[in-house]
């Protein structure tokens, strides 16, 4: 490994470079993905390549040979055939040599990957397709412990939900109001009801509908249309649901930020 320290004085810039072997934590056991494990071969190959690449790209030239020997010893203990290891080492040295030349000639070139779930004896057949499009084939493992073992969380009470887009419908007609809030739904509903009771000089659209038509709202049947923590995304969701109402009482300015080009798509959706 190579580490550098910079010391600055008014007349001199002094750079001291310290070279050292690869550092291992005290908990390092030398255990890697075993060659006889039931994982796809590309994962075993990737584990070996990752260790070799660290040596070739991070080690100081005077320590590359010793570090490579340490990697080879570690993978031999994990049942990797010596010929298999030597082939990978040879290919990685060749790869880095050619890659460095490519980067010098065209530094903007980036590798492309085609990723699919791994199914034994099936996923490998996609290699000709990825080669056709000049992509590297990469596999993912669909069955992971995370998909089977989850931390359970208690379900929130309906009115305790936050970061939501909600809808309140009128009891006496098909009018409805769509809004969004980052607070609890119960808090926002109480604010709407309080505005109706106080009947201020600048009433909300819900208060205006209540006073003008003497209609009541289904406060106990409010619906949650969407959950979204991001404020910007929540505003977009609110505008879409406002547009999808059959008889919305929201003000026109509530959807001014939504481009008209989306109107046809929204109207094609079923009403919310």
UniProtKB/TrEMBL annotation:
Gene3D superfamilies assigned: GIY-YIG endonuclease
Organism: Trachymyrmex cornetzi
Protein name in UniProt: GIY-YIG domain-containing protein
Domain GIY-YIG: 161-251
InterPro entries xref list: GIY-YIG_endonuc, GIY-YIG_endonuc_sf, HTH_animal
Pfam (any one): HTH_animal
């Amino acid at each position: 490994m190579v580490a550098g320290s910079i010391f600055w004085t008014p007349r001199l810039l002094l750079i001291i470079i310290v070279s050292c072997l690869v550092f291992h934590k005290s908990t390092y056991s030398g255990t890697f993905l075993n060659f006889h494990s039931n994982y796809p071969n590309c994962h075993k190959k990737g584990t070996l390549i990752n260790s070799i690449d660290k040596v070739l790209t991070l080690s100081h030239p005077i320590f590359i040979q010793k570090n490579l020997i340490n990697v080879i010893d570690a993978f031999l203990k994990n049942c990797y055939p010596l010929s298999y290891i030597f082939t990978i080492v040879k290919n990685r040295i060749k790869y880095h040599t050619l890659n460095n030349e490519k980067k010098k000639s065209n530094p903007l070139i980036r590798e492309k990957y085609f990723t699919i779930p791994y199914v034994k004896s099936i996923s490998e057949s996609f290699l000709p397709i990825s080669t056709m499009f000049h992509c590297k084939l990469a596999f993912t493992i669909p069955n992971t412990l995370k998909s089977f073992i989850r931390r359970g969380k208690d379900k929130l009470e309906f009115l305790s939900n936050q970061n939501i887009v909600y809808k309140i419908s009128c009891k006496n007609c098909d009018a409805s109001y769509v809004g969004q809030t980052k607070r609890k739904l119960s808090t926002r509903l109480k604010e709407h009801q309080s505005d109706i009771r106080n009947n201020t000089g600048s009433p909300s659209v819900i208060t205006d509908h209540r006073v003008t038509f003497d209609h009541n709202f289904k406060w106990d049947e409010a619906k949650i249309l969407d959950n979204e923590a991001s404020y910007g995304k929540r505003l977009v969701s609110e505008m879409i649901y406002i547009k999808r109402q059959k008889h919305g009482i929201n003000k026109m300015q509530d959807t001014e930020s939504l481009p008209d080009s989306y109107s046809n798509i929204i109207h094609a959706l079923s009403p919310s």
